[in-house]
Design brief:
Elements lengths: L7 H25 L6 H37 L26 H17 L4 H34 L4 E5 L6 H4 L5 E3 L13 E4 L12 H5 L4 H8 L2 H8 L4 H6 L5 E6 L2 E6 L8 H9 L6 E2 L8 E2 L3 E2 L1 H7 L3 H10 L9 E5 L2 E5 L1
Antiparallel strand pairs: 1-2, 1-3, 4-5, 5-8, 6-7, 9-10
Length: about 350
């Protein structure tokens, strides 16, 4: 499947929004550097000006989001309905994503600085750390403003869902969700710093703009592939046919080191419950101990033997053929399947 490509309107929107947010955060940091060590009097002087900067940025970001929605609908050959209601960008000003006033959001940086001084930090150092806190909080508020405006604009035009598209370079957690369709009623799951884009799209048209996970990973050079999948060994396993979703999800329950006699191994317990894909592969290969155990608090029984990570498999294997067999035995390489679909964040394999 061809490499995913953002519609030009989405790319331009992403650049513009980043520019707006970056400019606002720079202005806020410049004002914050004028804070004195007597926090409250300084805040009473600078706070209103900082709030003006954030208010203006929120309105500009919201306006950009409202204009983007019909533009991307038109570019992707979807109906651009007359909105059921009009949205005023100013209505999104003054409120953070969690519902609290932005004035309180900014003042939280002052509180953060006071707490650091109380714990023994010098006022100057406390202000520097609080600046980072303020920048992160304000940046998150502006991103939330844009996403809220997008959702409102989509609702006004009866958009039913969104497709997740990458803004490369992307991390493994995002890569395995590339092209996933999410209904408009569900939240777009993100991690801190995620820059994936939501493209409004009817579910029956989503395949026109989605891409397979493999399509994106195959476009990367060795360095970026290892970065996306977590290690050089994982990248090699993918090249040898391992399922990238299995590799990325291994880190969900943690990758652990262990010392067995004079050998250091890396393993995961992901997929080793009795209903897990890895457990079934390991049991069939005779590396799951032929039985299972239940840990206190576990819902399902776990495989007796741990699931070796590709790094350990390659270090143990005497040749390529043995490495490939071990990748199959531990459930990294699965029988060939045409692909999968992702709906509302849940992957379903298609045979």
């Amino acid at each position: 499947m061809p490499l995913q490509s953002l519609p030009s309107s989405a790319s331009e929107y992403s650049r513009t929004q980043r520019k707006e947010i970056t400019a606002a955060l720079s202005a806020l940091r410049r004002l914050w550097r004028r804070m004195g060590t007597d926090f409250d009097p300084s805040w009473f002087t600078l706070g209103p000006r900082m709030l003006e900067v954030l208010d203006m940025a929120q309105e500009r970001v919201a306006a950009g989001s409202l204009a983007y929605l019909p533009a991307v609908l038109a570019e992707t050959d979807q109906p651009v309905r007359v909105p059921d209601y009009q949205i005023d960008p100013a209505a999104l000003v003054g409120v953070a994503g969690d519902g609290r006033p932005t004035e309180g959001l900014l003042y939280a940086a002052v509180v953060n600085a006071k707490e650091r001084v109380a714990s023994g930090m010098t006022p100057a150092s406390a202000l520097r750390h609080a600046s980072q806190f303020m920048t992160m909080a304000a940046g998150t508020a502006l991103s939330d403003t844009g996403r809220t405006a997008e959702k409102m604009a989509g609702h006004a035009r009866q958009v039913t869902g969104y497709v997740r598209m990458l803004t490369p370079p992307s991390c493994g957690r995002c890569v395995i969700l590339a092209g996933s369709w999410t209904s408009a009623r569900k939240a777009f799951h993100r991690h801190p710093g995620c820059d994936c884009r939501n493209i409004p799209m009817a579910e029956d048209a989503a395949n026109d703009v989605t891409t397979g996970v493999e399509g994106y990973l195959n476009s990367l050079d060795d360095r970026d592939l290892a970065k996306a999948l977590g290690s050089k060994a994982n990248a090699q396993a993918f090249k040898d046919g391992a399922d990238p979703i299995q590799i990325v999800n291994a880190y969900r329950s943690g990758v652990r080191p262990a010392q067995i006699f004079d050998e250091r191994i890396k393993y995961t317990l992901e997929g080793t419950t009795r209903r897990g894909l890895a457990y079934r592969a390991m049991r069939a290969a005779g590396v799951a101990g032929g039985d299972a155990r239940r840990k206190v608090g576990d819902r399902y029984m776990s495989a007796r033997n741990v699931r070796l990570m590709p790094e350990t498999i390659y270090s143990r294997a005497r040749n390529r053929e043995e490495a490939l067999q071990m990748l199959r035995d531990y459930g990294w390489i699965r029988p060939a399947q045409p692909g999968f679909i992702i709906r509302d964040g849940i992957a379903t394999r298609v045979r």
